[in-house]
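A reminder from the course coordinator: this example appears on the midterm review sheet, so study it carefully.

Given structure:
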């Protein structure tokens, strides 16, 4: 009820996944709030800021009630805490700050002595996120969708658990161990996804995620930001098998291509047939770049030519029509 044209927005999202149409995500402050709610008090602790279901409910309900969802945008309740919440379910200790949540490494040398990686449903972070998702769904009353945590997967989770620099040595020193652990991470991803999907799945059998794209089935962002540190041969060996398995298992998959340092692996990525779409995050977004600048047009054309849909982010008003004229819908 906070998105009156949700039926047409859903149709546009489906058409976009099919490479047939355009999704336009536009938000702005509402002239009049959808509900007159008091803002929550500041969180009493960092634990409350990032993991309290009750505080997050009050904070997000207040924020979404004051947002106008134009085009195909829709209200979406975020349950994310860390960048790579799955790592916290596999044993990484948490380090909280006012701006973000870090996952500290937990696999020491020699890593072969570390137990197999298994989803820990008794972990504090898992229990908090599950309670958060359940509360947000229960209290939504048709006003918003609820995303699942930002699980992340693949080599990125192993980088969190081992430490990024240490893992780069592991790729050379113990490649079979890396492949084994990535397989265990994939198994944990599927289990975690299914558990959260059972709670946040909407009336149309779909869900959304932290990149604000909806699909009428199991829908997720996939990634390997760590590939900024290695090239196509290692991508093909360590990333592609698990990533292709994920994309085949999901109904709708979008890859988060994070910055120019990852571009040497683009051809490997485009060769993954079950991958449906790619999102592009330019490195210089934080200093004023935008996803609609003409310097990115050729990249979008390459992705579209490979049969994948494209998500361009933070496109400025004046860039929309030139982008569509250059690259199509």
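Designed residues:
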């Amino acid at each position: 009820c906070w998105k009156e044209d949700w039926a047409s927005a859903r149709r546009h999202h489906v058409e976009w996944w099919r490479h047939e149409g355009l999704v336009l995500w536009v938000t702005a402050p509402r002239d009049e709030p959808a509900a007159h709610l008091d803002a929550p008090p500041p969180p009493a602790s960092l634990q409350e800021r990032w993991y309290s279901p009750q505080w997050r409910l009050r904070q997000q309900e207040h924020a979404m009630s004051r947002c106008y969802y134009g085009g195909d945008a829709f209200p979406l309740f975020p349950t994310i805490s860390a960048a790579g919440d799955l790592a916290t379910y596999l044993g990484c200790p948490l380090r909280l700050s006012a701006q973000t949540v870090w996952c500290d490494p937990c696999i020491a040398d020699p890593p072969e002595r570390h137990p197999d990686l298994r989803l820990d449903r008794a972990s504090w972070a898992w229990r908090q996120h599950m309670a958060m998702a359940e509360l947000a769904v229960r209290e939504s009353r048709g006003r918003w969708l609820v995303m699942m945590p930002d699980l992340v997967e693949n080599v990125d989770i192993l980088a969190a658990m081992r430490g990024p620099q240490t893992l780069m040595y592991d790729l050379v020193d113990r490649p079979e161990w890396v492949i084994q652990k990535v397989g265990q991470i994939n198994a944990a991803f599927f289990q975690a996804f299914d558990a959260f999907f059972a709670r946040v799945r909407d009336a149309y059998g779909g869900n959304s995620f932290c990149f604000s794209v909806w699909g009428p089935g199991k829908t997720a962002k996939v990634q390997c930001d760590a590939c900024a540190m290695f090239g196509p041969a290692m991508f093909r060996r360590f990333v592609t098998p698990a990533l292709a398995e994920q994309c085949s298992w999901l109904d709708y998959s979008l890859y988060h291509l994070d910055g120019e340092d990852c571009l040497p692996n683009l051809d490997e990525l485009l060769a993954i047939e079950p991958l449906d779409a790619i999102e592009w995050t330019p490195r210089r977004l934080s200093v004023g770049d935008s996803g609609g600048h003409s310097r990115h047009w050729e990249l979008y054309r390459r992705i579209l030519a490979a049969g994948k849909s494209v998500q361009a982010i933070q496109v400025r008003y004046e860039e929309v029509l030139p982008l569509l004229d250059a690259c199509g819908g």
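The radius of gyration is 20 Å. The chain has a mean pLDDT of 97.
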